[in-house]
């Protein structure tokens, strides 16, 4: 997993990536030193749980991908079966290239871990 995340982190503008459970437990993670894994895990858990609850109540189906835009960057959460790929970018990241790299990483994670997207 670390090799896949490291490859994703090579994408221009990516600050780090991790695989987390719905509860925010970090399964694997490579983030730049100024970014705390526990904080990103907790934020991811909150966003995933709240979003899934709202999607269920609205009868909109399961969470596939979400992107949160903030002043200094973006947080991309991609659902894998039972896990989530979380990617942090700076505010200048080319989102088309980043999303392609995230999808490639998810595909590679699926092959390595047998996780279904």
Number of helices: 3
Distance between the termini: 15 Å
Beta-strand share of residues = 25-35%
Tell me the overall shape.
globular
Description:
With 117 residues, the protein is α+β, with helices and mostly antiparallel strands. It has a single domain, classed as Dynein light chain 2a, cytoplasmic (Beta-Lactamase), CATH 3.30.450.30. 41% of the residues lie in helices and 30% in strands. The protein contains 3 helices and 5 strands, in the order αββαβββα. The protein has helices at 2-9, 37-57, 95-113; strands at residues 14-20, 26-31, 65-70, 73-80, 83-90. The chain has a 5-stranded antiparallel sheet, sandwiched between helices. Strand 4 and strand 5 form a beta hairpin. Helix 1 (2-9) runs antiparallel to helix 3 (95-113). The longest helix is centred in the middle third of the chain and has 21 residues, at 37-57. The protein is globular and about 40 Å long. The mean pLDDT is 90.
């Amino acid at each position: 997993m670390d090799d896949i995340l490291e490859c994703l982190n090579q994408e221009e503008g990516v600050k780090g990536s991790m695989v987390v459970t719905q509860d925010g437990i970090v399964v694997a993670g490579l983030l730049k030193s100024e970014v705390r894994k526990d904080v990103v895990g907790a934020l991811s858990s909150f966003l995933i749980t709240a979003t899934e609850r709202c999607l269920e109540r609205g009868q909109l189906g399961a969470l596939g991908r979400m992107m949160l835009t903030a002043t200094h960057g973006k947080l991309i959460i991609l659902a894998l079966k039972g896990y989530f790929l979380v990617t942090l970018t700076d505010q200048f990241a080319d989102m088309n290239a980043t999303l392609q790299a995230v999808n490639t990483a998810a595909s590679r994670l699926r092959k390595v871990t047998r996780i279904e997207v």
